[in-house]
Amino acid sequence: MLGDHEEALEWVTSFHEAGDSLNTKGLIPFYSDDAILRWANFPSIEGRENILNFFDQIFVDYVSMKHNIIKISVTDDAIYQEASVDWRLKNDKPDSVITLRAMAVFGRKRGEKSARWIDVYIDPAPLFQRLKELKSNI
After folding, report:
1. Which of 56, 73, 105, 134 is the most buried (most CB within 10 A)?
2. Which residues form the SnoaL-like domain (predicted)?
3. Cα distance between residue 13 and residue 72, in whole Å
């Protein structure tokens, strides 16, 4: 089981490194063609291309994003991950960072290269509020 945990941690770490690059091309291998993303309370997003388009639209507001894995647990068909995420936003003060806690569940069987679905549990209100404030100041 330790090997399963190490493999899952390596996969999740690589997934977040790809996302934290703010370049959606790096995320392509992590989503199956028909993947489903359920992020916060937004409607489900179906299909890899639609998921990448979703991230393309929100990444434009970020200077950087960093996922900090706190803990993962592995089952036969999913990875459960607790993390904090740090965002730096365009047009914000250089030292301003918004940090939010999140929980994600990756629908991925052991050894699979791509997730079939990902559920992200997060309250993005502080992030969206700050984005709204910054956009109103432009």
Report:
1. 105
2. 13-113
3. 11
- Look at residue 77 and give its three-state secondary structure: coil
Kindly report the length of the chain. 138
Selection from 52, 57, 25 nearest residue 118 by Cα: 52
98 with 87: CB under 8 angstroms?
yes
Strands (E), 43-114: 45-46, 62-74, 79-89, 98-107
CA distance 75 to 1: 10
Token couple for 88: 């730096």
What integer is the mean pLDDT of 96-122? 96
Give the domain extent around 84: 2-136
In DSSP terms, which residues pair with 66 in a beta bridge?
Answer: 86
Q: Assign residue 76 the CATH number of its domain.
A: 3.10.450.50
Number of domains in the chain: 1
How is residue 37 written in tokens?
């993303």
Tracing tokens 């200077």 back to the chain, one arrives at 63
φ/ψ (deg, to 5) at 134: -65, -40
